[in-house]
Design brief:
It is a single chain. The chain has 317 residues and is an all-alpha fold. It has 17 helices and no strands. Helix 5 runs parallel beside helix 7, helix 12 runs antiparallel to helix 13 and helix 15 runs antiparallel to helix 16. The relative contact order is 0.04.
Length: 317
């Protein structure tokens, strides 16, 4: 009996020692991963977190690993890790919101809807959950549901600028211009320098034929940020519509001097050259646009060819 007791006692002691060693290894890996992440050594951080969760699937470390995967643009790995985390704790609202965000990146709007609605069921006052549900609804082409979810998000957080902006976008797509402008005014009241709100406001005014008001918004964006490509494109399109081709050309030349690596600026300047009858200048800009964005060669060439045919048919030059 003494021998058996001795053997069993030793076995229990060994098990305790192994458990302590595993816990020590886990802690070392976890905190080495955190330090590596904070130092910007993301691949090493991921390796540490992976080894740590192999020892112990602790919730915090799974969350750290998922976050690191996202930083490394490994969205599928992040999703798998978040699924593991949620399987452990189905009431983890933050994990569900993170999963919804990953689904958005993957354009899996059904998965996004499911995750965000689970988060809402757990926390009915979570504005971010309603916002993500709205993005999912929009991805599923359900604009009315998106409006409902965004309104609920704003009720929970009256300073939620992203929700006002997204609701304005949806409202404008539904051609509810007045309501969209009201939301944009709220955004600009909260942040007068919100460039996306100013650009959408410009787009709405131009769409309503209020070109002067639209141009004023575009000029405000350019004054705030001379490197905003969308502003130059919107301004150029307006000037072309108004047949102010010299000013349109000047607009794109100014933009290209500041942002010489943006293919779309060359493409649009080429369009102006074509309207002015300068086929050589148009071809040169098309060539440059393709050099900068070879993956869009078919689109760029197609746009130029269709545009040239349209001009010939209408007798523009």
């Amino acid at each position: 009996m003494g021998l058996l007791s001795s053997l069993f006692g030793k076995s229990k002691s060994d098990a305790n020692e192994q458990e302590k060693q595993d816990k020590k290894n886990f802690d070392i890996l976890k905190y080495d991963g955190i330090r590596a992440r904070n130092m910007g050594k993301l691949p090493y951080a991921i390796k540490c977190f992976e080894e740590a969760v192999a020892h112990q699937e602790e919730k915090e470390t799974l969350g750290l690993l998922a976050s690191a995967y996202l930083q490394a643009n490994r969205t599928e790995d992040a999703r798998i890790t978040l699924d593991r985390l949620i399987a452990q704790d189905e009431t983890n609202v933050q994990a569900l919101l993170s999963l919804a965000s990953v689904c958005y990146i993957q354009e899996d709007y059904e998965g996004m809807e499911k995750a965000s609605q689970k988060a809402i069921a757990l926390d009915e006052k979570n504005a971010q959950a309603y916002y993500l549900a709205a993005r999912a609804a929009r991805g599923l082409k359900n604009d009315l549901q998106a409006i409902v979810m965004l309104t609920k998000a704003i009720v929970q957080n009256e300073s939620f600028t992203e929700a006002y902006l997204l609701r304005a976008e949806v409202l404008w797509e539904m051609r509810q211009a007045k309501d969209a402008l009201n939301d944009l005014e709220q955004v600009l009241k909260l942040n007068p320098e919100e460039e996306e709100a100013l650009l959408l406001k410009a787009t709405i005014h131009i769409g309503m034929g209020e070109n002067q008001e639209g141009e004023a918004c575009v000029e405000q964006v350019i004054a705030l940020n001379p490197f905003n490509v969308k502003a130059y494109l919107l301004k150029g399109g307006l000037l072309i519509e108004e047949k102010q081709l010299d000013k349109a050309l000047e607009n794109y030349q100014e933009a290209i001097e500041l942002i010489p690596q943006e293919a779309q600026l060359y493409q649009e300047r080429g369009r102006v050259h074509l309207l002015m009858g300068d086929k050589a200048g148009a071809a040169e800009d098309m060539k440059k646009a393709i050099e900068l964005a070879p993956e869009k060669e078919n689109l760029i060439s197609g746009n130029f060819n269709n545009f040239e045919k349209s001009n010939l048919q209408t007798g523009i030059y």
